[in-house]
Design a protein that fits this description.
The structure holds two protein chains of two kinds.
Chain A: E1 3-7, H1 9-19, E2 24-26, H2 35-45, E3 52-54, H3 59-72, E4 76-80, H4 82-87, H5 89-97, E5 103-108, H6 122-125, E6 133-136, H7 140-157, E7 161-166, E8 175-179, H8 182-188, E9 205-206, E10 215-216, E11 222-223, H9 226-238, H10 240-255, E12 263-266, E13 273-278, H11 281-294, E14 299-304, E15 306-308, H12 312-318, E16 324-329, H13 339-350, E17 356-361, H14 371-382, E18 392-393
Parallel strand pairs in A: 2-3, 2-4, 4-5, 5-7, 6-7, 13-14, 13-16, 16-17, 17-18
Antiparallel strand pairs in A: 1-8, 6-15, 10-11, 12-14
Chain B: H1 25-37, E1 41-45, H2 49-53, E2 65-68, H3 74-87, E3 94-100, H4 101-106, H5 109-117, E4 122-128, H6 163-168, E5 174-179, H7 183-195, E6 199-205, H8 209-212, H9 219-228, E7 235-238, E8 241-244, H10 246-254, H11 260-264, H12 275-309
Parallel strand pairs in B: 1-2, 1-3, 3-4, 4-6, 5-6
Antiparallel strand pairs in B: 5-7, 7-8
Helix pairs in contact in B: 1-7, 3-5
The chains are: A alpha/beta, B alpha/beta.
The structure holds thiamine diphosphate.
Thiamine diphosphate (TPP) binds next to helix 2, strand 3 and helix 4 of chain B.
C-alpha cells in the first residue's frame, strides 16, 4: 500500500512520471503546467529520479526531444498547456505517425488570442486528429494513475497518449492522493522495449520519405504505402479498447482503484436525463444531479474519461435510456458546436438512438461554472425552453 | 597529419543509386563525411535534399542509422538521441545532425542555438547550397547577394547571413568550414570533430548544379573557385583559436584572391546581377577576407609567440 499525500494536479502528474521511471524528460514552462517540469527538475537534481532532463527552448523542441529519445529506446515524458500544445502540433503528428509511446501531461488551458491563462479544453480538442490517445481526468488521483496506465497502454500499442486535466481547477488544487509503492509500479509497468531498436551494426532509416503505392524492399517483400501506415494507426486506435481495459483491470488488481470504464457514470441506473461532460466538470455535474434528483428528476452524469479513441459503444450503452442528453462542452468547433456534442450525436446516430440533445458551451477561459448554472441549464433544456440551432453559450451576458 | 586519398577508408556508406541529382555537391561531401564518421553513428536529418538522397521507403542508399526529423528540429532531435543514449548507458555512438542551409540558418536556428547553449554532445553539419533546393530553389538567408532564386526573381539584395559567426558566439569547442571540392580537408575536419566533446559545428559549401545553374561536370571546379574568390573561406575555430586552413590558408600567405566576377559568370543564378551589385559584393568579400586574414595572423602569430617563449 502506498502512502497518501496532499498533492496538486501538477505534482500528481510529476509523481506519476517519476514512478514510471521515465528516462528522458523535456518540457518548456507554460502556466498552468509549469509546476510539472519544476517538480521533475527537482526530482532529477536531487537524485530521486534517474532521468535526463533537457531544458529545451520551446515546446516544438520539447516534443522533438521526446520523439528522438523514444525512437532510440528511452521512456520519454513531456507536459504542456494551451499555446504550448498548439506549438507542438507538427510534432504531435510526428510522434503518432512514428508510433512512439510518449506520454504528455496536459494542464488544459484556453488558447490566445486574446490571452487567457485559465482553463478550458480548446487546446487538446484542437489536437484531437493528431493520432494521440486522449484521456481526461476528474481529480488528482486520476491524473497520477492515468499516467501510469498511459505508459502501459502506449507501449503496448505504440501510440502516444495525452493525459488531460483542467488547468488550475486540478493543476493548482491540492487534494489527497495515494502514491503507489515504486515496487508495485515496477511490477505493473515493465521497462520500455522499443519496437525498432537502433544499433550500429544493423542500420535503419526511420521515417523516410515514402510514396502512395506499396513498394518492395530489397528482399522482394511488399511494404506498406503511406496510406497503409495511416490505416495501421487508425486500426491501432480502433482496437485499443481491449488493451486499455486490460491495463485498467490489472491496475485494479495491483492498486485497487477502478478505471475499468471509458466513461464515468453517476446515478445512471434509471436516468432519463443525462448531463454529459468531461474532466473535472463531472464533479459539479454530479452535485447538479443530486439537486435534480431531490427535485424529482431522474438525472445522471455520464462523463467521458476517454476521448480518443472515442468510446462510442460504451457511450451508447450509457445513454440507452436517456430521453434528454445535455452536453456541457468546454470547447467549441467554431461554426458548429462543442466537439463532445458532435461526437456524442454521431455515436447515438450509429446506434439508432434519438434522445433530445442540447449543447451548452461553458467555462471558456476560466469562466466559472457553478452547480446552480448546470442545474438550471439542464431544466431549461428538458423543458424545451432553450431550443436553438447552434449551441447555447451559458452565462455570457456580453 | 592531413589524410591523403590512399588513407581514406574503403568502406562506402552511400550505396550507388542515391536519389540525388547528377553532379550533386552534397553527395560528394556526404560520402566523405560518412567515411569520417563510421558505423557507430546515429544521424538525424530534417526535410531537405538529403532526405531525398537517402532514398524512398522501404529502401535507402545510406548504410548508417538515421532518424528523419521535421524541418525545424535537427538539433532538438539530436538532443533527444543524445539524452536517450545517455539514459540507456550507450556510450559508443557519435550523434550527428545534418541539415541544409535553410534548415540551419532559418527554421532550425532556434533549436540549434539552444542545443549549442546546452553544449549538447553532438556534431552539427550544415551543408550550404545557398538556397532551399529541395523545394525548387527558393531563397534562404544563406543565398548570396545578387543571386536569382524563385522567390527573388530579380535577384536577392541582402548579403548572406554569417552563420559561422553566430555559432562562434555560442562559445562551442569546435567550428569549421569546409567544401565539397576539398573532400580530404572535409574528412579531416569531421574526424577531428569526432574526437571533441560538446557541440561541434561544421559548415560545408556544396555547389548545386540545378540550383546555381552550371554544368554538372563543373561541381568541383566551381567549389574551388568559391574558395579562390573567398565566397567560401576554409577555417577552423578550436577552443576559440581561429585559423585559416587548406587552400584558404595558402591564399592568405600568397595574398592571392580571384575577383568574384570569375565565380559569378560561371553560374546562371547570377545572370541578372548588375555591375553595381558585383562591386558591392566584391567590397563585402574583400572586407570579410581582410578580417579573416587579420584574425588568422593574430592567432598564428600568438601561437608562434607563445612557442618562442617556451
Ligand atoms: C515546417 C516546414 N515548412 C516547410 C517545409 C518544406 N520544405 C522542405 S525542405 C525545404 C527546403 C530545405 O532547404 P535547405 O534546408 O536549404 O536544404 P536543401 O533543400 O537545400 O537540401 C522546405 C522549405 C517543411 N518540410 N516543413
Amino acid at each position: 500500500m502506498g502512502m497518501v499525500k496532499i498533492l496538486n494536479g501538477s505534482e500528481a502528474a510529476a509523481t506519476g512520471a517519476r514512478l514510471c521511471r521515465v528516462q528522458v524528460v523535456a518540457a518548456y514552462p507554460i502556466t498552468p503546467q509549469s509546476k510539472i517540469p519544476e517538480t521533475l527538475a527537482k526530482y532529477v537534481e536531487t537524485g530521486q529520479m534517474q532521468a535526463e532532463f533537457i531544458r529545451v527552448e520551446s515546446e516544438h523542441s520539447a516534443l522533438t526531444v521526446c520523439i528522438s529519445a523514444s525512437t532510440v529506446g528511452a521512456r520519454a515524458f513531456t507536459a504542456t498547456a494551451a499555446n504550448g500544445l498548439a506549438y507542438m502540433h507538427e510534432q504531435l503528428h510526428w510522434a503518432a505517425g512514428a508510433r512512439l509511446p510518449i506520454v504528455l501531461a496536459l494542464a488544459n488551458r484556453g488558447l490566445g488570442a486574446p490571452w487567457t491563462i485559465f482553463n478550458d479544453m480548446q487546446d487538446s480538442i484542437s489536437q484531437r486528429d493528431t493520432g494521440w490517445m486522449q484521456v481526461y481526468c476528474r481529480d488528482n488521483q486520476e491524473i497520477l494513475d492515468s499516467i501510469i496506465m498511459a505508459y502501459r497502454i502506449a507501449e503496448q500499442i505504440h501510440v502516444p497518449m495525452m493525459v488531460c486535466f483542467d488547468g488550475f481547477v486540478l493543476s493548482h488544487t491540492s487534494m489527497p492522493v495515494e502514491i503507489p509503492e515504486q515496487s508495485e509500479v515496477d511490477r505493473y509497468l515493465p521497462p520500455y522495449e522499443p519496437h525498432i531498436p537502433i544499433h550500429g551494426s544493423e542500420p535503419i532509416n526511420v521515417n523516410p520519405v515514402m510514396l502512395a503505392e506499396p513498394r518492395a524492399n530489397a528482399q522482394g517483400e511488399l511494404c506498406p504505402s503511406y496510406m497503409g501506415f495511416r490505416l495501421r494507426l487508425q486500426e491501432a486506435l480502433q482496437d485499443a479498447g481491449e488493451t486499455i481495459l486490460t491495463a485498467a483491470e490489472e491496475f485494479y488488481q495491483v492498486f485497487g482503484r477502478d478505471y475499468r470504464h471509458f466513461v464515468w457514470e453517476y446515478r445512471n441506473d434509471d436516468a432519463e436525463i443525462v448531463l454529459l461532460t468531461m474532466g473535472s466538470l463531472a464533479n459539479e455535474a454530479a452535485l447538479a444531479v443530486d439537486i435534480l434528483r431531490d427535485r424529482g428528476c431522474r438525472a445522471a452524469v455520464v462523463a467521458l474519461r476517454l476521448f480518443r479513441p472515442f468510446p462510442a459503444e460504451e457511450l451508447r450503452r450509457a445513454l440507452e435510456n436517456a430521453k434528454h442528453v445535455v452536453v456541457f462542452d468546454k470547447n467549441v468547433s467554431y461554426g458548429l458546436e462543442g466537439a463532445t456534442c458532435t461526437e456524442t450525436k454521431a455515436a447515438l446516430f450509429d446506434g439508432g438512438l434519438h434522445p433530445v440533445v442540447t449543447n451548452y458551451i461553458v467555462g471558456l477561459g476560466g469562466k466559472n461554472v457553478d452547480v446552480a448554472d448546470l442545474t438550471e441549464a439542464t431544466l431549461q433544456a428538458v423543458q424545451g425552453k432553450n431550443r436553438s440551432d447552434g449551441p447555447i453559450w451559458l452565462g455570457v451576458a456580453v | 597529419m592531413a589524410t591523403n586519398v590512399l588513407q581514406l577508408p574503403e568502406e562506402e556508406y552511400i550505396l550507388p543509386g542515391t536519389r540525388s541529382c547528377s553532379g550533386c555537391g552534397l553527395a560528394l561531401a556526404y560520402r566523405h563525411i560518412l567515411k569520417a564518421l563510421g558505423q557507430k553513428t546515429i544521424l538525424t536529418i530534417p526535410a531537405s535534399c538529403l532526405t531525398v538522397l537517402h532514398g524512398l521507403y522501404p529502401s535507402t542508399s545510406v548504410k548508417l542509422s538515421n532518424i528523419n526529423t521535421a524541418f525545424a528540429t535537427t538539433a532538438a532531435s539530436a538532443s533527444g538521441i543524445v539524452a536517450a543514449l545517455k539514459a540507456l548507458g550507450k556510450t559508443d555512438f557519435t550523434v550527428v545532425g545534418v541539415a541544409g542551409d535553410g534548415g540551419t540558418y532559418d527554421i532550425g536556428i532556434q533549436a540549434l542555438s539552444a542545443a549549442a547553449e546546452r553544449n549538447t554532445d553532438f556534431i552539427y553539419i550544415c551543408y550550404d547550397n545557398e538556397g532551399y533546393m529541395n523545394t525548387g530553389t527558393q531563397r534562404s538567408s544563406a543565398t548570396p547577394m545578387g543571386a536569382f532564386t524563385t522567390t527573388t526573381p530579380t535577384t536577392k539584395l541582402e548579403h548572406k547571413k554569417d552563420m559561422l559567426a553566430i555559432m562562434e558566439a555560442h562559445g562551442i569547442p569546435y567550428i569549421a568550414s569546409a567544401s565539397a571540392a576539398y573532400p580530404l580537408d572535409l574528412y579531416d575536419k569531421v574526424k577531428k570533430a569526432k574526437t571533441i566533446r560538446g557541440t561541434r559545428f561544421i559548415l560545408v559549401n556544396v555547389p548545386c548544379s540545378p540550383g546555381w545553374g552550371f554544368p554538372t561536370r563543373d561541381v568541383v571546379k566551381l567549389g574551388k573557385l568559391a574558395i579562390d574568390t573567398a565566397m567560401c573561406v576554409l577555417h577552423e575555430v578550436e577552443d576559440g583559436v581561429f585559423r585559416l586552413t587548406g587552400r584558404s590558408r595558402a591564399m592568405a600567405r600568397s595574398s592571392k584572391k580571384k575577383p568574384v566576377a570569375d565565380y559569378l559568370k560561371m553560374q546562371g543564378r547570377f545572370r541578372h546581377i548588375d555591375a553595381e551589385h558585383i562591386d558591392l559584393l566584391q567590397e563585402w568579400l574583400d572586407q570579410r577576407w581582410t578580417r579573416y586574414v587579420a584574425r588568422h595572423q593574430l592567432c598564428e602569430g600568438g601561437a608562434e609567440a607563445s612557442k618562442a617563449g617556451e
